[in-house]
UniProtKB/TrEMBL annotation:
Organism: Arachis hypogaea
Signal sequence, start to end: 1-24
Keyword Protein biosynthesis: no
Gene3D superfamilies in UniProt: Thaumatin
Similarity-based family: Belongs to the thaumatin family.
InterPro entries (UniProt xref): Osmotin/thaumatin-like_sf (IPR037176), Thaumatin (IPR001938), Thaumatin_CS (IPR017949)
Protein name from the UniProt record: Thaumatin-like protein
Keyword field: Signal
């Protein structure tokens, strides 16, 4: 009798393990940056807990996380992190405010490049995107693997936007802004920088009809055509796949994976990366003193000039 109970216990254990694996996705987080990062994870209100909410990932290393198929949430990377004299952990960009490496339910403080997921949503599809709505701190790429339905396309922002971030949006290493030439570690959204409802798609501008792309969001969109650039940028920024596992790559190399760049099945006529924006790490030399329409026109002219100059160099 004892042997039978032991046998049944083993069978139940392996069956549970098997079905748990089937009902889970594998997210492999990869650091291609030349410096360490501290990925953070935030689950939606109704999502099951994850085995980790934050960890250190050194340059060139990866970590695979098992994610429940019913999960929704965000993944991002913190940079320039360390402990103060009291042992409190904090980061210059995308800090989650927990005072620890684990975020414990805290979200990324803008600006931060975000990977957003809703697994097993409508029609059993996963919905995913890379969002610059809360600003930008690192290049990021999402690659779906082994999906059975949906477009399963790669998406992300492969361009380093920090060096050429408009001065009104730039964040310096010491958490300051408008740091002059170069030195940027993140690029704020216009909503965070100015708090204007027109940029935040709030108050009288809270619908798709009243809130369109701004000159600032177009700066992000031109460089990263598939990333969310403002709140209602859904049509060209949300991607789907069923029963897939995912690679989330920080600081991917734009030209090293033509196979990934060309493996689009969803028919969206947008490149994953705008090759005319590959030289955006040059310092921005424009003035930060202009305002209103003059500032908007200067940002548009700046984007066009950078694109044209880069096209000539490529």
């Amino acid at each position: 009798m004892g042997r039978l109970v032991l046998f049944l216990t083993i069978i139940v254990f392996f069956a549970f393990s098997f079905f748990s694996e089937v009902e889970s996705a594998r997210f492999r987080v990869i650091n291609k940056c030349r410096h360490p990062i501290w990925p953070g994870l935030l689950s939606g209100a109704t999502s099951p807990p994850l085995p980790t909410t934050g960890f250190l990932l050194n340059a060139g290393r990866s970590r695979t996380i098992t994610i429940p198929r019913s999960w929704s949430g965000r993944i991002w990377a913190r940079t320039l992190c360390g402990q103060d004299s009291d042992g409190k952990f904090s980061c210059v960009t995308a800090d989650c405010g927990s005072g620890k490496v684990e975020c414990g339910g805290g979200g990324a403080k803008p600006p931060a490049t975000l990977a957003e997921f809703t697994l097993n949503g409508a029609d059993g599809l996963d919905f995913y995107d890379v969002s610059l709505v809360d600003g930008y701190n690192l290049p990021m790429l999402i690659v779906a693997q082994g999906g059975t339905r949906g477009g399963c396309s790669a998406t992300g922002c492969l361009v380093d936007l920090n060096g050429a971030c408009p001065s009104d949006l730039r964040v310096a290493r010491g958490n300051g802004t408008k740091s002059g030439r170069g030195g940027g570690v993140a690029c704020r959204s216009a909503c965070e920088a100015f708090g204007d409802p027109r940029y935040c798609c709030s108050e009288a501008y809270s619908t798709p009809d009243t809130c369109g792309p701004s000159a600032y969001s177009l700066y992000f969109k031109h460089a990263c055509p598939r990333a969310y650039s403002y709140a209602y940028d859904d049509k060209t920024s949300t991607y789907t796949c069923a029963s897939a596992n995912y690679l989330i790559i920080f600081c991917p190399l734009p030209y090293t994976s033509q196979k990934v760049l060309g493996a689009r099945k969803d028919g969206v006529p947008l490149p994953l990366v705008n090759k005319t924006m590959m030289y955006l790490s040059r310092p921005h030399s424009g003035s930060s003193s202009s305002s209103g329409p003059t500032r908007t026109q200067s940002i548009v002219a700046y984007v066009v000039a950078i694109a044209a100059d880069s096209e000539a160099q490529s």
